[in-house]
Amino acid sequence: xxxxxxxxxxxxxxxxxxxxxxxxxxxxxxxxxxxxxxxxxxxxxxxxxxxxxxxxxxxxxxxxxxxxxxxxxxxxxxxxxxxxxxxxxxxxxxxxxxxxxxxxxxxx
Length: 108
Known about the structure:
Layout: H1 2-35, H2 39-68, H3 77-107
Helix pairs in contact: 1-2, 1-3, 2-3
């Protein structure tokens, strides 16, 4: 039903936002750790952030695959927001990783 679909999208959206938020925190911590001089630990935190954003992607992919398979979902502003949040944080993780390289080379 429409209500079930709405609930499924809301649940997926909240999972995406939750995992993406945790990923952002890990990416921010990674840069801080690198600035404190521990590039190896910073890279572990980036790996954590990457794993968390992958969980967010998995929640999105589940919905997209169902829609591609013919399931018709209603439009959800919350789900669109979740996707925007995820993409922004995915970019933040990539930039943070590059920043750690820069910090390490500058410190050397």
